[in-house]
Amino acid sequence: MSQPESSLMNRLVSLSKRRGFIFPASEIYGGLNGFWDFGPLGVQLKNNLRDAWWRAMVECPPMGLDGKPLSIVGIDTSIIQHPKTWEASGHVAGFSDLMVDCRETKARYRADHILVAEVRVRVKNNEQDSTLTEWLSTLDDEDAWETICKKAKKLFLKAGVVEKDIQVADRSTWKPLTDMPSGMGQAEVYGPDAKNKGTLTEPRAFNLMFHSYVGVFQSEDSKVYLRPETAQGIFLQYKNVLDTSRVKPPFGVAQVGKSFRNEVTPRNFIFRSREFEQMEMEFFVPPEDGMKWYEFWVAERMRWWEEQGVKKEHLFRHEIPDNERAFYSAATSDIEYLWPFTAPNFGELEGVAYRTDYDLTQHQKFSKVNLEYVDQENSRRYTPHVIEPASGLTRGVLLLLAESYQYDESRASPEWLKLKPSLAPIKAGVFPLVNKDGMPEVAEKLYLELRQNFTCQYDAKQSIGKRYARMDEAGTPFCITVDGDTLKDQNVTIRNRDTAQQERVALDHVKAYLAGKLV
Ligand code: GAP
User: Fold this and answer.
1) What is the pLDDT of residues 125-156, one digit of tens each?
2) Ligand 1 within 6 A of 350 CB?
3) Looking at 403, 426, 460, which one is the last position of a domain?
4) What is the pLDDT of residue 158?
5) CB distance 263 to ligand 1 below 6 Å
6) Domain boundary residue, one of 403, 432, 451
């Protein structure tokens, strides 16, 4: 099957815009970098993914290590918390990225997002051949190779070098700017958008938390932060949950909500944005059981993503080595996905961290409130250890779009989304074949009945082929058509999105038919 020219990411961005999944925020004012709005189809898809997660965590959690259902409760905490929260958690002191500025272009980059490539050029000097080495850089994205080759040509062809004498080192040898020998990244490298070399500054730490002020006076005393993760709200309420719900370790507290990070280089569409949603669960366990539960949650979360329609081979467990983990974490695995912009490599979708008792101990220290658990059965007190599966909801929507995207020129809409039916924004389209001869009345009646249970859309405009195509692009699994025969035999045609096959189903059986397929 031939594929269109533009990259998969560009096609996802344009399909999202054209069909109302995701729009650039503040678009009429030129947009705001790192902010996105979810349109009618996008919000529906996002809510469906959120609801599937909530159901799997809170309403119907998996069976635990003893074969009994786990106990996990939900919570919804404030985005703005007492500023001491972020001192205790370590975010005020340490939640930062290294960034560099370009003195020539005034652009700002995350240092570890800049990739440096060695370019060798053969030059003739007084009739003698010599080799010149230059260091060109680019942002680490799917166009990185093309970008470096284009820049190398631009730089050296202008200087009279012929193309065959320019040799760009193999991509596998390129280094992040942060790995260049000290000072060399600043003196020798051409910045990603610069014409001259040596214009990048030394890397500097940049705190990622957005701040504001509470009340009318703006001073250090009234400074507050927009939460950079939902997790801390759970730790702050851990004791209240313990005291008011019938839970005891092992138990979990789950939360879904907005988080904010002033990312230095937001990019790859909604993969890394400045305002995003997270789905996090903190699982509190007796200290001696920490590693068992960590392994349990890594396996469970990989299984859950597969259940949402992600191919096994598109997921990868990346165990973070000891020297790269947060100091308080006894073990961490990233669940990675084969993103279009990281392929053939994988990139983070969700993190599962064994956070030990770090957070509760810190909040205990800063608040001076005892957060120990009193285990009366075993006559002991302890600060529970925590396993945290932390995943991005908005990042999950990008995954669903990328994973479900299909391209088939033989179909009315070459681009279509093979979403898991229960996650699809619209479950069924209901159409009269033509907008006359009694068909609209029957179709409308069916639509009014079905919408009580399923998200449906009634559409009587354009040819039937065009209506199928629109639904395919939205990922709608079923299209139900009322035609001339329906009036005689009380049957409708149901078209299956994935096979494009049609079958006749009795009008009064359509609801049961959909219920059976939308699991
Ligand atoms: N409480 C732990 C925590 O927040 P994290 O790895 O920083 O860990 C968890 O974030 C998940 O949140 C990530 O795996 C990712 O899916 C999502 N996420 C983090 N930063 C994001 C951003 N700027 N834009 C979109 N999603 C983001």
Assistant:
1) 777 788 999 999 999 887 889 999 999 999 98
2) yes
3) 403
4) 84
5) yes
6) 403
Q: Is pLDDT of 427 > 90?
A: yes
Ligand 1 atom nearest the C-alpha of 351 is 14
Contact 336, 296 (CB under 8 A): no
Residue 278 CA to ligand 1 centre (angstroms): 7
Domain of 157 in residue numbering reads as: 98-206
Query: Roughly what angle, to the nearest 10 degrees, separates helices 40-54 and 393-404?
Result: 110
Q: Give CA–CA dist 490/253, Å, rounded.
A: 50
Q: Which amino acid type is present at position 430?
A: V
Tens digits of per-residue pLDDT, 217-273? Answer: 999 999 999 999 999 999 999 999 999 999 999 999 999 999 999 999 898 999 999
Among 295, 297, 353, 349, CA closest to 320? 353
Residues 366-389, mean pLDDT to the nearest whole number:
97
Domain identity same for 62 and 134: no
483 lines ligand 1 (CB under 6 A): no
Round the CA-based radius of gyration of the chain to a whole number and report it: 27
Q: Are 265 and 327 part of one and the same domain?
A: yes
Give the residue from 396, 430, 418 showing the smallest Cα distance to 48.
396
